[in-house]
């Protein structure tokens, strides 16, 4: 494991922790706490970073970044489904 994988994984782990709580709150409150545009573009950008991490053979960063991107996608979908 290279140091870049450790640093990127640690940052993505912190993001994943905060995003998981945010998705939980949005689901429980049935409210859109993040705009759809923000969630969509963050998901898109984070999936792109996952591809970059994968191309650099950083497995842990790839997995955690993909998880974060999926959390952003979940927030986007919550925003779409609970739109009033």
General description of the model:
This protein is mostly helical. The protein has a single domain, classed as Up-down Bundle (Monooxygenase), CATH 1.20.1280.290. Helices cover 83% and strands 0% of the residues. It contains three helices and no strands. It has helices spanning 3-29, 36-55, 59-81. The chain is elongated. The N and C termini lie far apart (47 Å). The model has no long low-confidence stretch (mean pLDDT 89).
Total beta strand runs: 0
Low-pLDDT windows of residues? none
> Any idea what the shape is?
elongated
Rg: 14 Å
Average the pLDDT over all residues and give the rounded result.
89
Overall tally of structural domains: 1
Taking the alpha carbons of the first and last residues, their distance comes to 47 Å
Strand content: under 5%
Largest sheet: none
Q: Name the helicity range.
A: over 70%
CATH class: Mainly Alpha
Please provide a brief summary of the model:
This protein is mainly alpha-helical and 84 residues long. The protein has helices spanning 3-29, 36-55, 59-81. The radius of gyration is 14 Å and the shape is elongated.
Keywords:
single chain; 84 residues; mainly alpha; Monooxygenase; 3 helices; 83% helix; elongated
């Amino acid at each position: 494991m290279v140091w870049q994988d450790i640093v990127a994984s640690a940052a993505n782990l912190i993001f994943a922790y905060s995003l998981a709580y945010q998705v939980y709150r949005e689901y429980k409150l049935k409210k859109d706490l993040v705009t759809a545009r923000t969630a969509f573009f963050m998901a898109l950008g984070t999936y792109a970073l996952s591809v970059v991490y994968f191309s650099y053979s950083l497995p842990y960063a790839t997995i955690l970044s993909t998880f974060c991107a999926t959390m952003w996608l979940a927030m986007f979908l919550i925003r779409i489904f609970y739109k009033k």
